[in-house]
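Record copied across here:
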Amino acid sequence: FGHKRGAFTGASADREGLFELASAGTLFLDEIGELPLACQAKLLRVLDSGEFRPLGASAVRRTGARVIAATHRDLEALVAAGRFRHDLLYRLDVVHIAVPPLRERREDIPLLVEHLLHQAVRRHPGTPAPRVEPQALQRLIDYAWPGNVRELRNVVERVMILESRDLLHLEDLPPEIREYGSAER
């Protein structure tokens, strides 16, 4: 929500909050299920009224920001456990888009790997854009991905940095992925 200079020790300048920065745009709140109850009440107030007050400010500010929230948690279970406000859940759940975990949509993995390789090349100029040999790609497809797309992104970037060559091989993959399911094969 931002703060005014002098609102607390170390607040040496005014700072705009995310709602003010988003203004009439979109604010993405990741891992909304981790938000403490006290913050949930403040967020609900802003979503209901479009108004907020930066810490230490006397004037109320308005926002027209659209909010998109994401979580890996079951928010209904958190509501039942008393750890998430039911009124906030209903306020956020206008349009619900369920994205299954990566292990349930393995057909996306080849395109994701290609996309992630191109992203990594942009972040590390001078690194060649490698291709992935079929055996390595198949192991990436077979792996369970408990960390979902974030884990896949980290693996792709790590392999690309450590094995800077034109073709990524099965032996270039981390051991937990390279050896995944090998007892069944």
Notes: Residues 109-123 form the longest helix (15 residues). The first strand starts at residue 2 and ends at 3. The two ends are 54 Å apart (CA to CA).
